[in-house]
Structures are given as structure tokens and as C-alpha cells.
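Researcher: I'm preparing a figure for a lab meeting and need a structural model of a single chain. I don't have an experimental structure, so a prediction will have to do for now. The sequence is pasted below. Please return the structure as C-alpha cells so I can convert it later.
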Amino acid sequence: MDEKLDMSHQCVLAARKASCILGCIKRSVASRLREAIPPLYSALTKVLLEYCIQLWSPQHKKYTDVLEWVQRRATKVIRGLEHLSFEERLRELGLFSQEKRRLWGNVISTFQYLMGPYRKDGENIFSRAYCDRSESNGFKLRKGRFRLAIRKKFFALRKVKHWNRLPREVVEASSLETFKARLDGALSNLV
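Model: Understood. Here is the structure written out cell by cell.
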């Protein structure tokens, strides 16, 4: 992080490390089958791209593309999927794009702060906007107005828009497991 709270350096470092690990996988694994590459990618490479992503989430398209490029490269390695587009390869492998994974992780973290084990801390981080409209999810968050643009990049403000767009049945889940299951269905509408 630099003096302007910019995480672009972290994005480049994470992508570089993940790319090096992916190169090692390509050189050392003889099989290019679906059974070999995705588990190695998930265990060794994807972890580097997603470690503490809620903290250093990239803010500019240039850096999200750098992270997505590693996943694009990993899916091209798999035999039989080379001719498909990136989105089709992700669908075939049952993977989310990096952008959707970040959103998924952020919304789950928000749920834990609002209704889960970190509820006490969540009261200090988020402010609730009361809304009684029937089509609303009933648990909207208020997005503050700030003089400095840097404040808009904070976790609590970055995900308010996505949280407020979730349907009522997702937000009112009774447990984290139920929330995750319902979120997977609603996630395609958020991005």
C-alpha cells in the first residue's frame, strides 16, 4: 500500500506470484486433463489471488484485468477447453471470475458483520437505512457522503450497493450456510 492507500502494487505482486506458480504447474505436471489442473490451480494459485482480497481489493479495471489474466491463463492449459471462450471455460469448470469471487467474499463478510459472529463489530462499521418498501430486502445499508474520494474505497462503503441489491430471501437467511446457498443463485444478477 502506498501513501495514497492505493493497493495496485499488491495486485501486481499477487498476480506475479500466482503466475510463477502456474508456470511451475505447467512445467512439472505432464497431464493437462481436467482432473489434474483445476485442483492444483485452486490449491496453489487461486489462493494467492484471493488472500485478504477484502482488504486490498483492486479499484481500477487495469488491476482487476491483471488478476483475471492469471485465471484466464490457467483455464487455457486444460486439454479440450482451448477452443472455448474464457466465460465458457469458467462455466465448464464450475468457476467464478475473479470479480465475482471478490464480490462473493465481500458479501459473505458483510453478512458475518451484520448477522453473524462479528455482529458487535458490524454495528460500528455499517449504518442501517430503514426501508419499508415491499420489494426491498428490508435490511438496507446507508451509504454515507464524504468529501474525500479515498473513503469510497473502504470495505464498508464499497459493498453497500451490492448488499442493497440482494433479494429479501437472501438477506434474511438464518445461517451462513443458507446465506451462501441463496447467494450463489442471486450472484449472477449482481455483476
